[in-house]
Batch of 2 targets.
Target 1
Amino acid sequence: MYVKICGLSEPEHVATAVEAGADAIGFVLTRSPRRITPERAAELAAQVPGHVLTVGVFRGEAPETVRAAALTAGVRAVQLHGTHPHGDFTALKDLGVTLIRAVDAQADLRCGAFDEDLLLVDAPHAGSGRQWEWAAVRGRASGRWMLAGGLAPGNVREAIEAAGPWGVDVSSGVETSPGVKDSRLIEEFLRNARG
Ligand SMILES: O=C(O)c1ccccc1N[C@@H]1O[C@H](COP(=O)(O)O)[C@@H](O)[C@H]1O
């Protein structure tokens, strides 16, 4: 099971996620309680080994804004939330990073439909920590797709069984309050996600 830990802002939590076996870690570079600057993301990304994907998370920004922030941060993937047209993904292809299309369950759920490399199926309000009806996407989402939205150490197994994703992504569920990560919860999430 591919696991992404998102919304990291402290070196200690980046180290915990890497050591506990995360496949990807995310830095929020858009309006959010978890927002960090691209410069801060670059400092954190520098401590991440090459086998772990570093992801810049955006919501509704224009491709040029995403490009500039991703280059400053030095991330190897960008995750675009919001109603981006296909052309936004095409415009970012030459950046040479992994493109992640983040949508809710009403969208086209075929990974690759917008030329993205990974699909993320999330709650309508990304980053809110709210659960939604994960089972509604079972058999509808296809390809390399991650489930997100209200996941936590205590429910990630149930979510995987309900939706059948290729991977999972968490932010709020490994925090003690919005934007404050907890190393013990990060480790527990990774353990439970892998069963
Ligand atoms: O985390 C945020 O604040 C955020 C802001 C804007 C866009 C996406 C955001 N987070 C993404 O939301 C999902 C899961 O969130 P949660 O576990 O329900 O809190 C994850 O993909 C984050 O990257």
Note: Strands lie at 2-5, 24-28, 53-59, 77-81, 98-103, 118-121, 145-147, 167-170, 175-177, 180-181.
Target 2
Amino acid sequence: MGSMPATPRSLDVAPYDALLLYSFGGPNKPEDVVPFLRNVTVGKGIPDARLEEVGEHYYGFGGKSPINEQNLELKAALEAELARRGIDLPVVWGNRNWEPFTTDAIDELERIGAQRAVALVTSAYSSYSGCRQYREDLAVVLEKRGQLDDSGSTGVELDKIRSYFNHPGFVQANLDAVADGFAELVAKGGDPRSARLVFVTHSIPDTMEAASVVSQATYSAQHLDVARSVVAGLAERLGHDVAWDLAYCSRSGPPSQPWLEPDVNDHLEALAADGVTDVVMAPIGFVSDHMEVAYDLDTEAMATAGELGLTAVRAGTVSTREPFVRGLVDLLLERAAIARGEDVAEATVGDLPPFRSVCAPGCCLRRDGEPSGVPALCGSGLYS
Ligand SMILES: CC1=C(CCC(=O)O)c2cc3nc(cc4[nH]c(cc5[nH]c(cc1n2)c(C)c5CCC(=O)O)c(CCC(=O)O)c4C)C(CCC(=O)O)=C3C
Ligand SMILES: [Fe+2]
């Protein structure tokens, strides 16, 4: 992966007095599934048939998503890494769509006396779904609590760590996971030289993809950048090149609405038709093995691969891999230095710049040129 930029030297987290680990949330038991799906889809125009289908995915796993336990593991790993470096900073966990909800997390920040916290969202890429929606939910919840005015929060102040898809820690952890995936393929009797590496991420509507360019490069371009970095590192480790593609999973929305393609199942079919026999799927779009991975990849895409007679392996997500967790703490220190007005080197790998710590006007809207009218924190203005 070439030269790795040095980690920030200062261990100063001022002006922050808490880290908010901010995630999507998921159901813990069957009775949670419908209310959770209602929270996720309010005002989104997702067809009922799709919702029933997604509900079945959750019921198939006992009505419980693995995402909450995975976030607790990440929280524990972050706490351990902070302690290892001698950094004293409480970590508070909250979710947009399930318990502990955003408002619970803000209660907790108030309880511990936090004045200014920094949010780390469990989405590495920038788009409406991975960036602005998190920022909007923070603002809307503060507004409901009567803690928002034109200048932002009147309670605990909240900043955000930049989209970290091209941070060395995230890329390194993905490279390690893909290399492990290739080792598993070999153990299964596959041929790493002829295997196809299929990077996978969550599909989004084409309109959301187009709007995501304001954040410095589109959602798909961000993934291609990570993919190229991982492929370069993998070729070094394996001693030969590997052919690769980017495919998408978890499409929803009406069929009339175009979303990013190819779908991973269609893509596996096309590969098999082309004579490919071995595949490694790498879910670089997700930070842990939550339901999109457990169902859409491990259940559905693996079944497709089986029907096609492919030897297939699903590589791991970054989850609590050491380079990822270390990188997140580096990003926290970087963000703190930026908040203090210091000149910091923002580490990246690949061809794209470090993404902004304070989102630009019009960044990551749902659709191009359509301001939502919904306030959002951590940007250049509450309604920009
Ligand atoms: C880019 C992206 C990420 C990655 C970034 C990030 O991690 O944030 C992500 C993550 C996740 N998506 C998740 C679940 C769902 N996403 C849905 C719907 C949608 N996702 C979208 C995009 C994304 N989603 C979009 C454009 C929609 C259409 C509606 C809308 O415009 O918002 C729906 C509704 C039903 C359906 O349509 O599938 C569900 C249930 C879970 C929880 C999994 C668990 O429980 O383990 C997680 C981590
Ligand atoms: Fe989603």
Note: The pocket of coproporphyrin III (ligand 1) is lined by residues 24, 26, 37, 40-41, 44, 46, 50, 54, 65, 67, 122-123, 127, 129-130, 202, 204, 250, 252, 285, 290-292 (CB under 6 Å).
